[in-house]
Amino acid sequence: MQLSFFSSQPYDRRFFEARRSASTCDDEVVFTFLSAELDRQTVALAEGADAICVFVNDKLDRDILTQLAALGVRAVLLRCAGYNHLDLEAADELGLFVARVPAYSPEAVAEHALALTMTLNRRTHRAYNRVREGNFMLDGLLGMTLHGKTVGIVGTGRIGRATAAIFHGMGCRVLGFDPAPAADFERLGTVVDMDRLLAESDVVSLHCPLFDSTHHLIDERALARMKSGAMLVNTSRGALIDTVAVIEALKSRRLGALAIDVYEQEAPLFFADRSDEFIDDDVFVRLMSFPNVLITGHQGFFTAEAMNEIADTTLANLADFLAGRVCSNRLSGAD
């Protein structure tokens, strides 16, 4: 039985090979690690594989799923929680087994959201570079005391609640919005509607999945409703924000600062060394030109604990598939 990994990095190989001995999947499963992203040009690389393992920027539309099934692939394992890049209806029609990792170390992403907020607020990235050059001036490094400020959490799932707990512990007033808010969020903050959250929050942190209903959730209208000078933080999915509208809000100084770990058009950029290349994305280059914008390359999940959970859950999903057992992480278009 062959499992082919698309979009794999050296750390994927290390963690999956290390956790293999602790898994219950068949010892005869052969791992093949491919650095290529899955798309129409690379789908042929799945030939000979019984199952594939994919990540957030791999393409899984109807055409590609049809080609995978024709090649003999029977299972698609997502080593991520989001599945907006997957055509579930097509997967069902083709009889493909699809499973994901619904949650992995939510604290990892929550802590990264805090790191982005604190770094951008206190300008520690700029201070680091200054001191290395012998410049100890403080002008231009002024931040705000987060204690007592209002932080709006959009999405009260596990990551949203972990983020709320951190800011609550720092003495912040926490507001939360979710169409179906978690019952235990009330111990951390107050559930409000989106308009109130945007209007009152000094920091807005996004922690919701990407669906049609949340695509460009933060658009020109939402930005106009935000508290003037507020900070926007996105560690969820890039397409939650309308990047062009955000740039206009930064230019007009309506938006005070932006910290993102995800980007709507990140697929051609992220998870690779592009330092010797010309970045042919005018929107991204424009974003990087702002001194009050901080960008990281989709690393919010990237802790040892989270990587172990991803490997363990993915291999458990594979074991369920091979044994014909009910898999609690299986996805279906009927869900």
Write the layout of secondary structure elements.
Layout: E1 2-5, H1 10-20, E2 30-33, E3 51-54, H2 62-70, E4 75-78, H3 88-93, E5 97-99, H4 106-122, H5 124-132, E6 150-154, H6 158-169, E7 173-177, E8 190-191, H7 194-200, E9 203-206, H8 220-225, E10 230-234, H9 243-251, E11 255-260, H10 282-288, E12 293-295, H11 304-323
Parallel strand pairs: 1-2, 1-3, 3-4, 4-5, 6-7, 6-9, 7-8, 9-10, 10-11, 11-12
Structural class: alpha/beta
In total, the number of domains comes to: 2
Number of helices: 11
H-E string: EHEEHEHEHHEHEEHEHEHEHEH
The count of β-strands is 12
**Principal-axis shape:** globular
CATH fold title of the largest domain: Rossmann fold
Proportion of residues in extended strands: 5-15%
DSSP helix fraction = 25-40%
Strands of the largest sheet, in order across it?
A: 8-7-6-9-10-11-12
Task: Assign the CATH class of the largest domain.
Answer: Alpha Beta
CATH homologous superfamily of the largest domain - what is it? Answer: NAD(P)-binding Rossmann-like Domain
Mean pLDDT metric: 95
CATH architecture of the largest domain: 3-Layer(aba) Sandwich
- Low-pLDDT segments, ≥5 res: none
Radius of gyration: 21 Å
Distance between the termini: 29 Å
